Amino acid sequence: MAGMGAGGATRQPRAVAWRAWLAVALWAGLILRLSGDDLSAASTSRLLGPLLRWIFPELDAQTLQTIHFIVRKAAHFLEYAVLGALAIWALRRSGTWSAGRRAGLALALVAAVAALDEGHQSRSTRRTGSPWDAGLDGAGGVAGIALATALGRRRAAPARPPGVGVIAGGRGGA
User: Fold this and answer.
1) What pTM was computed for the model?
2) CB atoms within 10 A of CB 92
3) Residue 87 and residue 148: Cα distance in Å, rounded?
4) H runs (alpha helix) in the chain
5) Are 150 and 84 within 8 A, CB to CB?
6) Tens-digit pLDDT profile for residues 137-158
7) Which of 110, 118, 122, 169 ranks highest by number of CB atoms within 10 Å?
């Protein structure tokens, strides 16, 4: 059998863990790449502005600017939610830590990337680093961590034996 032999039993889980960490690294790299000048508010407004005007032609400029702002902040939240979920996924495959320890480690990783991201933006000529954005990033990370942890628990829960929770002799209906 492939992968068996001296130490072969651990090769498969290590490969899975490495792939999981690669996904974390690639996603963190994407986040840091997106924090450059190319995706400043002025740049994205040139893309989103015409799209929003096409979808909502009746909206005034202030409302369109508000929608643009919300879309940008939602992107921050979602980027970090994915990062938090990927970190939980990688940590689950890398060790036997408790769920609480995994969540803490994942949150530390999210906070480190958020600090790098906002630090990078604060040195940019077209962007601004903000502690509020770092907080939003962290909130997204917490949401991703919570969701991935809940899904992981649900997946790990044992299946119910047949008949458990069913009313005897009935169909559970009216």
Assistant:
1) 0.76
2) 20
3) 9
4) 8-34, 41-55, 61-94, 99-122, 131-156
5) no
6) 999 999 999 999 999 887 766 6
7) 110
